[in-house]
Amino acid sequence: MQSVKKNRVIKVRSVHVEVGEFTMIIPEFLRYNYDIIKENYPELAESQIVITSTPGKVRCKACGAVTEVSFKKPAADGADASLAMMNPGAFACSACGGTDTSIAGGREATVKSMRVDD
Ligand SMILES: [Zn+2]
Question: What is the DSSP secondary-structure string of 93-117?
Answer without folding.
Answer: -TTT----EEEEE---EEEEEEEEE
